[in-house]
Amino acid sequence: MVNKNDYEEVRKEIRRLITEIERHNYLYYVKNEPEISDAEFDILYDRLNKLESKYPLLVDTNSPTQRIGAEPVTEFETIHFAKPLLSLDKVQSYEDFLGFFNKLKRILGEGISINYTATPKLDGLSIGIRYENGRFVWAATRGDGYTGENVSLNVKTIKSIPMFLNLDEKQKIPVLEIRGEVIYHRDDFVKLNAKLESMGEKTFVNPRNAASGSLRQLDPKITASRPLKVYFYDITHVEDLEFTSHWEMLKFIEKVGLPLVPNAEFLENTIDVKNYFENTRTKRAQLPFEIDGVVIKVDSTELQTRLGEVSHHPRWAIAWKFQSEEVMTVLKDVFWNVSRTGAVTPVAILEPVFISGATISRATLHNEDEIERIGIKIGDKVIITRAGDVIPEVIKPIVNLRDGSEIKIVPPERCPVCNSKLSKSPDDVFRRCSNKKCPAIVTDSIKHFASKRAFNIEGLGEKQVEILLNENVIENVSDIFTLKSDKLSSLNRWGDKLAQKIIHNVEKSKHIHFSRFIYALGIFGVGDHLSDILADNFNSIKLLMNASFDELVNIKEIGPTTAQSIINFFNNESNMEIIERLIKLGVTIEYPEKRIIEESKLKNQTFVFTGGLSSLSREEAFNIVKSLGGQVSTSVSKNTNFVVVGENPGSKYEKAKKLGITILTEEEFLKLIGK
Ligand code: IVH
Q1: Is 119 close to ligand 1, i.e. is its CB under 6 Å away?
Q2: Residues 130 and 270 reside in one and the same domain
Q3: Which has the least CB within 10 A, 94, 116, 161, 410?
């Protein structure tokens, strides 16, 4: 048996070795300034390894020996972020940037001076990491911004990420959630593809996909073999610590040993911003990794708070993206696609061409007017780009390269899928198929419902939806929630594995954020952005269903056509039946926390709490009341406006009744604060 003192000594020695190894990892992987040779490092590592093998109870899950190659997992768990990882609004020119700047001025007042922090916009995969008391707890992909996939085992294999933050001895930081980008350096990417090719395996299209494919690996050993890099640029949530500026936050990131996004700069005005953008663009090709623009943030925390956020992005930051690359190819044909709204849209079939990191063989031509406007013909040599470096787009034909063999593009008179006659109203840019049962429309609606931005049911893609419809297993979206795995696995070419995966993912998707639910409904004219806006403006699906035309058009972004479309959607009985059935089948909608607009909702209202709350802690409840402008008191008096009564309430409950003060159950309180 080991003597207690010896055991304590071993524990200390293990701690010392871990700290020492982590420090050398930092010097090697973050600072690029190693102090010891690889051989000396190995000695430290082996010593730790030996001690841990001898004393398995002393193995820390965050020990350097635990970083490489954990066992494969079958799927990633879901992680909830303390604060959402928002996206960024974007501009593509200095003029647009000045538009952003003017908006800041409008909100903050003309006289205010605004400083910025600027960083390159890394083209990789966004992740969030949580540390508790300085210890790494988990890492997750950004997912939908609210929840992500737990990729901790994989992230642990990235040696530049500390498992222990380098905090001052007395500094206590109970929780810190930080956000960064996982990237693949260009030269590593070339090496990786050469290796994959030599092994006869599929190569990656670009470094971003290599980063994503390497991190979202069920087998951490594969991730461990890939030289991923991570850079951090934002602390999304921290307890017991405040920053007065973003620049201070970046310095803190650096200080605690986390790799900071390179080339960050503090800027004083819009001219500095312009120069920063130009300089970064010039340097772009020489950087070892890919970037697609710069990110400009208002530096002062106070101003950031005043500016606030909308559900998709903060108002205090903007991505200024580089103009997209342009290349030439040939328009081989035009395919007419029927979408879920019945719109028949032209798709360009192109001679495949490599552009902005991917091979493109299709691009939208938008509509007939656009074909007319750019004057394009089949057989033309055309210039294409990728809007925002993502969506392929045909810019124009090169008319003087024509040889006379080019053919005029003629839109179809009948639906290319169900052959019913297409109609076109004068104020619509599309011909439409109005057959509600058109297989293309039904398939596309269900596909939309299951898509990433909506219910995100992985495995339920176009092919699967088509089979389910053809086999009469489903008829509309609500049937998805009645699927049974034995029925699925009996379908032609579906194994048990796929069937179970889909059932599992269907189950997982049932808890859904409000804006995604709205988006999934596929209301005509309500896309990604308007779904966010509607979720911001209505506290529940019921309120949205009952919204009047006036209420809707009073929302800045919503015009009369969209307002009418929303009203029509909810007036349609079969749509309402589907929504009711979805809820009945267990779909629960997660409503966003109250937004800035509501900051003064509880102004001058005093709350007293008595008894235990089941869905949130006292402290959380206090904070919410305060964040909505209310006050919290510990005793009931005639100045109390509300008494919230939880389980086993005390004498405050009796007193409140006596004084005739409004008493709220926990549920009523949650409703009041919009939870
Ligand atoms: S800041 C609230 N800085 O770009 C703002 N984002 O298009 C937090 N990204 O998903 C983001 N490089 O993950 C910021 N230097 C940088 C970035 C960066 C890449 C990603 C980010 C986001 C996406 C938005």
Answers
A1: yes
A2: yes
A3: 410
Sequence-distant (6+) residues with CB within 8 A of 152 are 136, 137, 138, 139, 140
- Regarding whether 264 and 182 lie in a shared domain, the answer is yes
Dist CA 358 CA 207 (whole Å): 10
Most ligand 1 atoms within 8 A of CB, residue of 91, 116, 121, 276 to mutate: 121
Distances from the Cα of 143 to the Cα of 139, 146, 208, 229, 438, angstroms: 12, 7, 15, 19, 33
Nearest to 153 by CA among 66, 258, 226: 66
Separation of alpha carbons 258 and 238, rounded Å: 15
Is 664 touching ligand 1 by the criterion CB < 6 Å? Answer: no
* 169 plus 280 within the same structural domain: yes
CATH code assigned at 633? 3.40.50.10190
Q: Which of 121, 156, 297, 321 is catalytic?
A: 121
Atom of ligand 1 at shortest range from CA of 86: 2
- H or E element that contains 159: none
**String of b and e for 243-259 (b: at least 16 CB within 10 Å)?**
bebbbebbebbeebbbb
Residue nearest to atom 22 of ligand 1 (CA): 87
Among 540, 563, 590, where does a domain finish? 590
Q: Report whether 17 contacts 51 (CB < 8 A).
A: yes
DSSP string over 74-113: SSPPEEE-SS-----EEE-SHHHHHHHHHHHHHHH-TT--
Crossing angle between the packed helical segments 186-198 and 207-215, to the nearest 10 degrees? 70
378-420 pLDDT tens trace: 999 999 998 766 789 999 999 999 999 999 999 999 999 999 9
295-309, 424-438, 456-470, range with greatest mean pLDDT:
295-309
- Cβ neighbours, 10 Å, residue 378: 17
Verify that 300 and 360 share a domain, yes or no: no
Active site residue 156: no
Write down the H helix ranges in 538-627.
541-545, 549-553, 560-571, 573-584, 618-627
Task: Say yes or no: 135 and 241 in one domain.
Answer: yes
With beta carbons less than 8 A apart as the criterion, state whether 501 and 462 touch. no
- pLDDT per residue over 330-364, tens digit each? 999 999 999 888 999 999 999 999 888 788 999 98
CA distance 147 to 391: 25
Q: Any bridge partners for residue 142, and if so which?
A: none
608: which residues sit within 8 A by CB, 6+ positions away? Answer: 632, 633, 634, 635, 636, 640, 642, 643, 644, 652, 656
Tell me the whole-structure pTM to 2 decimals: 0.64
Centre of ligand 1 from the C-alpha of residue 358, in Å: 21
Q: How far is CA 37 from CA 28, 219, 221, in A?
A: 10, 30, 25
Cα–ligand 1 centroid distance for 218 (angstroms): 25
Return the SS3 of 13: helix
Residue type at position 111: G
Contact 372, 397 (CB under 8 A): no
Instruction: Please indicate, yes or no, if residue 32 is contained in any of the structural domains.
Output: yes
